[in-house]
Fold:
Amino acid sequence: MTKRLFTATPAMGAALLLPALAWTIRASPAFGAEARGDPPHDQRIVPEKSHPDRLPDRPSIPPSFSIPIEPLGFAAPGPIYLGQRFSLASLDFLGENRLLFTFRIPGLIHRSNHASDDEDNAEHYVRALVLALPSGAVEAETVWMLHDRDHYIWALDDGRFLLRDRDEIKIGNDGLELKAYLRFPGPVLDVGLDPDQQLLVTNSREPAPQTKPAAADVTGSQDASASFAMQTDLVLRVLRRESGKVIVVSRVHSQIDLPLNSDGFLELLPGKDNNWAINLNSFGGSSTVLGGVESNCMPSADFVSQQEFLVTTCTRNDMRGTFAMTTDGRTLWEDLPLSSPVWPLYVVGGNGLRFARESLAVSRLVNAFSPLSFDDVKGQVVEVFDAATGKVALTAAAAPVMDGGGNVAISPSGRRVAVLNAGAIQVFDLSAPPPLPAAPATAEESKAKP
Structure:
């Protein structure tokens, strides 16, 4: 499952129509390491600094096997797509020994008959293949017609997957059989899952509530009435995945990526001196302070497992740092790379014990004063991290460059990684990932021990 690091904003509490939160951060060390119970800085895990913009000559370990992709009908997308952030392909594990490989079939653009549809919503075809591992034998094959170029597929832990198209989400199996699952009043823009896959988050564009315009608004012409009839809103929903029951629904001003686990969602609140508090807000309205970070820009956060989440911050020299934190208030490790990742995307393994970061390898420093030119892009780098320690378990290149993701997948156990590179799907077998360290015993628990 591919996901970009989400951005939590102070507006989320209001947008979700939850009870009011305490927005004021007191000027005290309440959000510091001492209050959270974090170990001193020199006792935290500080992994070896990574190089997210350095294109490796070869993978840090050799692939266990490779599956050529040209015989499967795959053709690399042209450079015209670079920078569009389109989803042009997707790799997804369906269990440990099956890989779902989907990709756009190049050809003529099939335009819709609807005059309002633009080129980005033109019909296009996607080939879907289920490949047996390690042989690469095709076990199932089909072609789907889709209607936009955003992320369209999400693997589930039980060997099934979700497929998004227009106003519908379907559910499919390893035989590529699709069944109706959810339908919305308007097109679905994005889908998210919590780490345990109990909750589903959707953003959709739906008709606005039909209220009568004021007299002054309708005296001009019929164009005003037509414009009113065409109004749409963005709608955020949180649903139970198994039942489809809606927990939260709200009309919002912009598309929201909500970092959540099965207990609630993360909220980052600004304080003094570049300090940010991190709260976990339940859908029932309660709020728990998990800790805080220092950042010169608004941090972003996302869960990699039910207990662990990543927070990305800006340091004083405008570098991007990553902190791994837990829902019991601990900071497990921090990654302060030698260069900031360019357009990073994160792919999480099914059990949350490993995740991959893919970013663009560029030939020079990119910042607000020196924006990215696509002539500077050298390739795409994949780094696979152990979530418990921040150690890099694999470094490899991915080609062709897909800045919308879809060219990396991690198996449910975290022991297999698939990367699209060098005209093949390269599959790497890794050792078992380390488990998350147990939380230290509380004073009461220590006293209770014999």
